[in-house]
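Predict the assembly for these two chains.
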Amino acid sequence: MDQGVEPAAPGKSAVRPHRLPPEAGILLVLLALALAFELLGWLLVGQSFLFNGQRLVVMILQVSVIGIIAIGVTQVIITGGIDLSSGSVVALTAMVAASFAQSSDALRAVYPTLTDLPVVVPVLAGLAVGAVAGLVNGSLIAATEIPPFIATLGVMVTARGFAKWYTRGQPVSMLTDAYAALGSGVVPVVIFLATALIFHVALRYTRYGKFTYAIGANREAARISGIRVGSHLVVVYTIAGVLSGLAGVLTSARAISGQAGMGLMYELDAIAAAVIGGASLSGGVGRISGTVIGTLILGVVTSGFTFLRIDAYYQEIVKGAIIVAAVIADQYRRRRRLTAT
Amino acid sequence: MSPEPAAAPPPLLELRRVSKSFPGVAALEDVSLELRRGTVHGLIGENGAGKSTLMKIVAGVCAPDSGELRLAGRSVRLSSPRAALAHGIVMIHQELNLMPSMSVAENIWIRREPLNALRLVNHRELNRKTRALLDELTIDIDPATEVGVLPIALRQMVEIARALSYASQLLIMDEPTSALTERDAERLFAVIRELKARGVGIFYVTHRMEELAALADEISVLRDGRHVGTSRAGDLSRDALIRLMVGRELPALPAAATAIRGPAALRVRGLEVAGELHEVSFELHAGEILGVAGLVGSGRSELAAALFGLTRRTAGSIEVRGTEVTLDSPQAAIACGLGFVTEDRKDTGCFLGLSILENLEIAVLDRDFVRGGFVRATAAREACERMARLLRVKTPGLDERIENLSGGNQQKVLLGRWLLTRPGILILDEPTRGVDVAAKAEIHALIAQLAAEGTAVLMISSELPEILAMSHRIMVMRQGRVSGVLERAVADQVAIMELAAWTRA
């Protein structure tokens, strides 16, 4: 620090230990959990947890829908916001998409004249409904400056209401095979990973991503730097809405029906995945890669407990503990960073 | 009390060979200092010199790795701020630690509220005690006022009152005037002199030499964690102190070139913002530095906000290079070639948590470095690296987080953010607040150079020496109006203060 005002010589930065990517810690947790289940598997059930291709696929399949939502929620969290509406939007989009995906032999079709439509129609309908919900979230937050928590809480309740009202509470069933195929096999897994890749790139290499981080890091500074904060937030929440819509389509395709009770508490799982993955609720921090790992941790816990044939209640207890532990670890990291300066 | 030799009573506080290191950095090495009763001990040094760490040790916020603290001749260990408090040591932080939604009295006596027979807070007694305390300091605030509505200067007084309520004998003040106007600073100084007279010892950390000249009995200089010298105030000249601080000579404040006024870059006529600005008219020329002086609340920052489209103006016109413009948003202002370095680095400037690169590129990202939505990362990095070199930002690399930089280097990054936009008109609000002397000189030189190259600079500052040294002309504001414009030749502190001062009705 004594000589030179120029950027310090390269040798100087070598004093600092090489910095691991922020995901390293959480990846370790994932591996540790997996290994723990592997060990317990041999001890208690007498089989391998990890070396079972089918189980791994099912595991990822189970969390793919949460993962897709979490990708949108991560972006919202990076802006310093929160989206509580995802689960209800899943239900609403599942209902609407399913209603356009009914086959002609459905007994009481929602739209009797609109059956056996090509699969893109219900998909687009679902995404559109998700987009509208996200647009409402974003517009409320941008235009009225009410806290995102409140705005999305309102949309959460309203969307659930719309989902029930849409068919007066009746489930929408008898969907076309083409639609059902969207939810079967590894299709949701592929969509999840593709979505993750797209938004990983978007956050790191595009203007959209840079602005998203900037707004979360300091909203006023972002505004003064010429970023249209309001319209950018509308875009971010709309993207989150579309991804919830996508999750709704996959959920209904997988269940081959649309039900107003779908997606219950998904928003909390998605927020948990993002937070476990290192996203900070105070904004400006978060990465898709972390969220993917966070999602997988949720998956490992869920399928691990099932695998050990342990009661589902314990699952939730452990899941809750992991969420809190992740946030504590995150704050500890941050405090260390601050005192180091 | 142990019997003390009459000739040399032990100092109030003696630090003996105190060292402290943080992972990778030695923050303090072998520092020995003494603070005597009833004196002000000034502590100066560049950002990162170890002043704050030293004061944190005295206040019990962090423990030294080695060395000893002797309070009134007895060795003490201050394991926590509470332990320090018990010894009568109180620190008044740069960022005030008050609870804005609670009253002055509640803030001062928190945890020690007088209780009534039912063990409930006795508000009458609480306010009476507060009144007495404030009266002693001749501070005129109603104890029941909510702290959040008080101006910063008064909040500072509340902090001081709270410190005294602990019957403290040792007070630490870290840059107490950084947010105060000259007049409020004078009030603070009066309180400090009063405290001195009562025998309180004060550590006074500052960047401002003028204050040390006015207040300090002794001055100690820290550099790179080492104590490089202590002298009686007045024994060393300002220049000598600065040499000690930075270990080298500094260029004098660059004298602004005699005004060769270019064409009007900015012409403002009858600008009104409801409740903030009234009939503000002025011209700013290419190549000119127009200093804006005035007390806090005089409308200087509000003027900057209005010009940059952050607040809606209710009347008036703005011309940029002869063309009338609306400037109703920051985007519009940037498009017209305006740049704006705000007064508050933390609140409205830096993206803390993001890298230096991300902090630099943000304002030009869209215009210069995006193709088809994707960031041209290499081009952006090259431009930012050039800028960081030009501004001599002291950092291992652009991927370093901005919060790891010193205040001066953060300010350079913020300047760089706007220089990348190649602004024709640059608005600078307190460009060197909380910046150490060396970085300050560099920033001044840079501003002068920008003006020499034809940039029109509107420079708001509370530091009159800075305004006087840098500006071609000085515009003084008072209560949301322009109260006068002074040519450099006739401007001095007295003339400015006369125009700036409130006349209380």
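Residues 312-340 of chain A form the longest helix (29 residues). Confidence is low (pLDDT under 50) at residues 1-17 of chain A.
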